[in-house]
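Sat 14:20. Reprocessing the chain from the morning session after the first attempt stalled halfway. Input below, unchanged.
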Amino acid sequence: MLKETIKVACSSCNLRELCMPVGLNTQELIRVDELVATRRTVKRGAALFHTGEKFTSLYAIRSGFFKTGITTEDGRDQVTGFQMAGEIIGLDGIVNEHHTCDAVALEDAEVCVMPFDRIEEISREVNALQHHVHKIMSREIVRDHGVMLLLGSMRAEERLAAFLLNLVQRLQARGFSKSELVLRMTREEIGSYLGMKLETVSRTFSKFADDGVIAVKQRNIHILDADALKRIVNVPQCH
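Finished this time. Tokens:
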């Protein structure tokens, strides 16, 4: 069940630079502050929205971690992405005005609800907002292309190394450690996202640990050699 909480001003939010345009004047900030209708809490395991649900809003993640996914025709759950604080989810619903995936909280989370009609209205007055929304959409397209590259041409070790590097990079932008992270998702969910079997994910984690690249303690990952991970991802391809 989603619980509505008090409204927060975007201008005073410590995640503002991650999910809102920068360099706005006072008047523009006042208008952008009107974007957020409410804040909602989403309990771990609960859905923020479901496939087929009518699209009304974009959601800025204020705290917590989400996964997006679809159910394939043969009934399998396919993870399509992981989203964290400072990122926007719900963009999938813009095209057909209905959501095309499920968004589920991997831990207790809080989101800012931004009605899309209000975004469109304010974008007409604040050009920086319109540009920012386009930038977010473009980033999602680039990320999707990156996942396609992962699934299409990379070996298991390259996929997992790229995944860990991307996760650390995104967390570092939020002020977290560049070498330590807690995986909010299961090995199975990582495998679903990367197109790998659970055993392959576990085996690859073990290999990285044996090689001294990472230290693993349940869901706690300590990256001991980031350069080694980068070398794995950038390994020369045979043509």
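The first strand starts at residue 3 and ends at 5.
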